[in-house]
Amino acid sequence: xxxxxxxxxxxxxxxxxxxxxxxxxxxxxxxxxxxxxxxxxxxxxxxxxxxxxxxxxxxxxxxxxxxxxxxxxxxxxxxxxxxxxxxxxxxxxxxxxxxxxxxxxxxxxxxxxxxxxxxxxxxxxxxxxxxxxxxxxxxxxxxxxxxxxxxxxxxxxxxxxxxxxxxxxxxxxxxxxxxxxxxxxxxxxxxxxxxxxxxxxxxxxxxxxxxxxxxxxxxxxxxxxxxxxxxxxxxxxxxxxxxxxxxxxxxxxxxxxxxxxxxxxxxxxxxxxxxxxxxxxx
Length: 282
What we know:
This protein has 282 residues and is α/β, with parallel strands linked by helices. The chain has helices at 18-24, 52-55, 69-78, 90-98, 130-133, 145-152, 166-173, 195-211, 220-232, 236-242, 244-251, 257-262; strands at 40-44, 60-64, 83-87, 105-111, 114-115, 137-141, 158-161, 182-186, 217-218, 271-274, 277-280.
């Protein structure tokens, strides 16, 4: 995505009148059901649902991981981390660290929600204070979020989104000359559906649609995600407390992370992937 592009501005959705339907001899196909559009807005509930080859066809890919990678990485960049290298596995993270100056590098991440032995920081956003991360390079490996980011890295533009920075992600997307075709890739939980990523995806898709003059073409999952967002409303904290992953984090003593991850728009930072590093969008 070009940083220097113009903005896409919006308002309203087109509607089909009864007379128009009569002229065609029946119901017109809804714009968001037409396949193959260059204005595609596709959502995937897990990374397993889409191939890397298909990801290459999108202008923008937004990776969503509400609990907790997107929140922790946004917090780290907000507090002055130089850059963040996403790693798909523990071995990949330690291999990256072996090639860098250890004095400037922090190994960060989790497996099954817990701090990895030998790592400096886990995946709790509260850990990423200015005192710990300012001026440092972070190597970050998580169970769900970073494998999704690494898979999406084949796309020309990759952004990382949670509730905490969703409004800012929306603004960055509409700073592009044309944000479509776009994929919203939910990290899920161990390649399975998770409700919090789906609802955050639905919130993003719904807001994108409200900002566009010409309605984007939505795949079925994108349409379902909007229905889920409307079902749960705006109480993101209640959503996280009721989710499988939220209940699991509570069970391992990480309940304090849920209110942070549920806070909509509190971190106006958009992590963008450049040269295999997540950096703060400027």
